[in-house]
Structure formats: structure tokens, C-alpha cells
Amino acid sequence: MNQRKVLFFIPFSVLVLALSFCNTACANTNETPRQSNDTIIVPIVATDEVGEVKTDSQCIEIKDITNEVSYGHNPEAKPNVDVIVLHSCYHADSPDTFSIEGVIKQFIQYDVASHYLIARDGLILRLVSEDHVAWHAGKSALPTTKRTGLNATSIGIETICSKWNGPTEEQYTALAGLVNDICERYEINYIVSHEDIAPTRRSDPWCFNWNRFKAKLSEKALFAISKRDRFPKPKLTEKQRRTRM
């Protein structure tokens, strides 16, 4: 007897119970993320060999600390989001390079913030509501358009890593899950690096394996990130290469 016939004879009560469980356990990739007072559960999306989108049995958890963040954003400004910007950051002034607290102290010092911050263990912190403009991109421009000032049209995601130690596997998984979720909720046209939009100032995300990241992306996210391939290569002076972060 094949699998389809076996499923046909499952008692109705068991089937109802299973469906009820699926509705509460992030089994649908199109499901709107569930939000409580401090956490949001987002499905991790993977793609199988024939290109069908499916949901992994695991979930990523987003810890919302927006109530604690009064810096680095404008709560009165509403972004018109169609870009995701990927960043890297670390705590430069401490032996604990990857300290979340240290990174946040630097954000406070420079009055900057991204919407999301991903720790080394894959924990995602939401710093700024997606409904607010976060100051993460700085002076910036899309290479193939005349659009500048990308804070107004983007969601920024910082991954804690350094120029010598790239993202962990947990960070790649969390980042991809978050990006896939954002692409389901917005019409995202571009997924870019900070370097793409500010090449004379920035070189992040550092030590980033783009192929490893792309292998975890949904079809929508892959379409948005594919536009990076058409970006012209920036012409930088040796001084610019040495001084950019």
C-alpha cells in the first residue's frame, strides 16, 4: 500500500488534531509571523532539489527589544521598503569582540541602528520596528539607479562578525530565514550589501559566503539578490580601500 492510501485511512479525529497542530507550529511558509509581547516566530524556509518551497521543522526566534531602543532611528518617518541591506558589525574596543552589549553601546555612541541584529548563536534581536526609518545605510545609492538615501526605502540587518571571522552557520540560517520572511511580506526588489550601496566607505558584510547564503534562500529572495550581479564594480583608490570600514 502506498503512502497516499495509508493517509486516506487516518481517523478523522486524528487528522483534525494534526491540522490543529500545524496551524500553531509554523508549518506554512505563507503564514504571517506570530507575535507576542517580546518574540516573533518565523519559519525557516528551505528549497528541495525540484525547487519546491518547504518549511523546515525548526523555527527562528526574534527577540523584540524595540522598547529599549531610543537611538538610531526616526519613529515619525515611515519607510517605503523594497530593499534589504546586509551589514556586519563587531565591538572594536573590547576583547569580547562579538559582545551584543558592546555592539549596542557602539550603536548608541554613533546614534545608528539597524532593524535587526543577529548574534553569533543565531539569536535575532529586533532593534527598530520595520515601520520606522532606521539609520543604518548612511550616505548611500543603488548602483543601477539614481536613488539615494536608502534608509528611507530599506530594512537593515546587522550580523555580528569581523573581518577575520565570518558569520557562523547559525547566523547564515537565521539571516536567510529572516530575509525569506521579509520577502514574503514586502515587494523586495533588491537584496544588497552595505558595500554595494556605499563602496567608498564600507566593505561589509565581511568574510561573507554569498553562495552559502543563497543556498538557503527562497525563490523570491533569490530573484531580488540576483540583481547584484548586474551592479558595476566600483573604482576605488588605494586610500579608499585602506580607510573604508
TrEMBL record:
Reactions catalysed according to its record: Hydrolyzes the link between N-acetylmuramoyl residues and L-amino acid residues in certain cell-wall glycopeptides
UniProt keyword list: Cell wall biogenesis/degradation, Hydrolase, Signal
This enzyme's EC code(s): 3.5.1.28
GO molecular function, one term: N-acetylmuramoyl-L-alanine amidase activity
Gene Ontology BP, a term: peptidoglycan turnover
Signal peptide stretch: 1-27
EC primary class: hydrolase
InterPro entries: Amidase/PGRP_sf, Amidase_domain, NAMLAA_amidase_2
Ranges where the N-acetylmuramoyl-L-alanine amidase domain occurs: 70-206
Database matches in SMART domains: Ami_2 (SM00644)
Entry superkingdom: Bacteria
Name under which the protein is recorded: N-acetylmuramoyl-L-alanine amidase
The organism of origin for this protein: Pseudoprevotella muciniphila
